Structures are given as structure tokens and as C-alpha cells.
Automatic annotation (TrEMBL):
This is Transposase. It comes from Streptomyces mangrovisoli. The lineage of its organism: Bacteria, Bacillati, Actinomycetota, Actinomycetes, Kitasatosporales. Pfam families: BKACE. InterPro entries: Aldolase_TIM, BKACE. Keywords: Metal-binding, Transferase, Zinc. Its cofactor is Zn(2+).
Length: 350
């Protein structure tokens, strides 16, 4: 992204889109006071986050026994109810579905390819499904502290080990087919990226014509195979993202607020919720709604406006696709592909 002298002026920045992730699939009931259990509680969590200022909802579903649901019928039911309860929210399904272990001593793992592909067949369909690019370690506890996990199920040795040893498989066999199915269903992929190598893979997908749509992505700074919390890495990722992309910052635990504060100041977007964080400060719990409210307060203190649901849909370019590779590159603010025999650095077409 290119920064002009006036790019940090809030009146020149896009209005802030706040993603809320209030369904905490890695946690069990009792780990947080605001974990939804019943379907009514799932819907109310969305309503509360929307009323607080969130306009994008990251969705997982929990069964009544407290474990993450893998039943697509549950997702269908929830999406249908959310369309009525929060019609202006962008509904985003978490592509991992449920990575939580079934019990102590079992693995924490993402579902197989066929199960994840079935998210393209949800009815009613969501606006987005998140998609990981390239297989990597996903040790979500690597940069969590004992204080972060105090009083939670993940503090138990068996659960801790399950999350320490987790990885996600997202190689070409997965993402090529998944992008195809999402496109055929008219669902926008929301790229979950952590490294420049992953960003470069997405750029190759765009330049080769495999993907021809808006580039909407999260910078995932959760450690353990994903990005860490070094501000310089965050700044470099922001710098490398194409000008026409929509970028959201995602971090974990007590780093969420400071990382997001940087993102708000830079003019990009933020994600909060109990899936990412349980704490305001050391020893002080914080609900998903309170985290949304905190982002609103920080943004307003800087003079940056908060997007409405309709404005978030426009910023995300929900429902849009492009006719060709050249159009996609132009819409995303990327220089065109090199033509045969062309030398030197590429310039945008006049």
C-alpha cells in the first residue's frame, strides 16, 4: 500500500470495518463468560457485537455439549437466523470449521478437504468463507503466556499439547479446488495470511488468472507458524499489500489492542473477539462486545469514522468479480503482467 503525505489524516482513510469473532471455537464453556452455547445465544452474540459497532461477523458454531460443531445443518440454521437478526452484517464463515480437540488427549486439527469444501454449499450462503494459503504449523499457544491461559481449558497439559502440535494443511490441492467452488457459489474468499510468502502465492494466483476478484485479507499475527507481534513485520506486510486490497489486522490475547491500534492509525481494519483474546489487561477479563467498543473508542479518538454495515459491504466489494486477469490487476492497483519481450520494471497502464 502506498502512503501519501496525507494518508494518515483520518478524513482521507476508509471508514473502519470491525470484524467480530465472538464464538471462540478453541475454548470450552467456562473459559469465557460470553461464549455462546444455544442457538439463541449465538444470534444474540451477533446482535450485541453489531450494536457495539462491528459490521463483519466471523462465524463458528458450538453444540450444546460445548464443543465446536462440524454439522453443516447447524451452520445453515445459524446463517438463516443471522440474515434476519443482523441483515446488514457481512457474514463470514471460519474455514477451519472446528479445529478443537474432541477431548483431553486428542488432536486439535482442521477437517479434511472434502468437509471444508462443503462450506461452499451452505444454504443460505454466507458472504465470505475464510481460506488459508499454504500448509503451515498453527501452534496457537506459542506466544501465549501462563497469564493468558490461566483458568482456561487450554491450561490443562493435554489440551495445551493438542494446540501446540496443531498444523493446517492448505496446499495447492486444497486452495485451487476451494477457490473454484467458492467462486461457483458466489462466495467471496477472505484470505487468512501471515507471511509475505503466502501473500506472494496469492499474487501468483491473481497474475495467472486463477483468482479474479477483490483481495480481502487478514494479517494473522498469532505466532507458532504465523506472523508474530513485531511491529516492523506488520508495517512491512501493510506496505507489500496491493493498494486496492482490503486488509484487516488479527492478533492474539493482550497484543490485540496495541496491534489493532497501529492498524487503525495506518488506515486498515481490525478484528476482535473471544476467539482471539480474553483480556483487557493482565488478570482483567474482557468480553467480545467490550473489545468491539474499545476499537470504536480508539478509532474515534483518532478521528476515524466507523463503517456502517452497508459501507462495510461496499468496502469489501461483496458480490463483485472481475472479467479478466488484466481487469483484476487494475482493480487491485497492481502493475500489469510482463508482456513478451518487455524489459524493465512494469508501470501501470495509462
Amino acid at each position: 500500500m502506498h502512503f501519501h503525505d496525507d494518508s494518515l489524516f483520518p478524513e482521507n482513510q476508509e471508514k473502519l470495518v470491525i470484524q467480530a469473532a465472538p464464538y471462540g471455537p478453541e475454548w470450552l464453556p467456562g473459559d469465557a463468560d460470553d461464549l455462546p452455547l444455544t442457538m439463541d445465544e449465538h444470534v444474540q452474540a451477533a446482535v450485541d457485537c453489531y450494536n457495539a459497532g462491528a459490521t463483519v461477523l466471523h462465524i463458528h458454531v458450538r453444540e450444546l455439549d460445548g464443543k465446536g460443531s462440524k454439522r453443516l445443518s447447524m451452520f445453515n440454521e445459524l446463517i438463516g437466523r443471522l440474515r434476519e437478526a443482523v441483515p446488514d452484517m457481512v457474514l463470514q464463515i471460519g474455514g477451519s470449521i472446528s479445529f478443537a480437540p474432541e477431548g483431553e488427549g486428542s488432536e486439535a486439527k482442521w477437517l479434511d478437504f472434502d468437509s471444508r469444501h462443503m462450506l461452499a454449499d451452505l444454504d443460505p450462503k454466507p458472504d465470505q468463507v475464510t481460506i488459508a494459503i499454504n500448509t503451515s504449523q498453527m501452534n496457537i499457544v506459542e506466544i501465549m503466556t501462563d497469564d493468558d491461559l490461566e483458568g482456561t481449558s487450554i491450561a490443562k497439559p493435554d489440551y495445551y499439547k493438542a494446540y501446540r502440535d496443531m498444523y493446517l494443511e492448505a496446499g495447492p490441492d486444497f486452495y485451487l479446488e476451494h477457490l473454484k467452488r467458492l467462486g461457483e457459489s458466489g462466495i467471496q474468499p477472505h484470505f487468512q495470511l501471515a507471511t509475505l510468502a503466502q501473500l506472494e502465492t496469492v499474487e501468483r494466483l491473481i497474475r495467472s488468472g486463477v483468482y479474479t476478484g477483490p483481495l480481502v485479507l487478514n494479517y494473522v499475527a498469532i505466532g507458532g507458524g504465523f506472523a508474530g507481534r513485531h511491529p516492523a513485520d506488520l508495517i512491512e506486510f501493510v506496505r507489500r499489500v496491493p493498494d486496492g486490497a482490503v486488509l484487516t489486522i488479527e492478533s492474539s490475547m493482550r497484543a490485540v489492542a496495541p496491534m489493532n491500534a497501529i492498524g487503525i492509525a495506518l488506515g486498515v481494519h481490525v478484528r476482535v473477539g473471544n476467539e482471539d483474546n480474553l483480556w483487557r489487561r493482565k488478570g482483567e477479563r474482557m468480553s467480545s462486545v467490550e473489545q468491539v467498543e474499545q476499537m470504536v473508542q480508539i478509532s474515534e479518538a483518532l478521528g476515524r469514522d466507523i463503517a456502517t454495515g452497508a459501507e462495510a459491504r461496499k468496502i469489501y466489494r461483496i458480490g463483485e468479480t472481475f472479467a479478466s486477469t488484466d481487469e483484476t490487476l487494475a482493480q487491485l492497483g497492481m502493475v500489469p503482467n510482463r508482456r513478451p519481450g518487455q524489459r524493465g520494471f512494469m508501470l501501470r497502464d495509462a
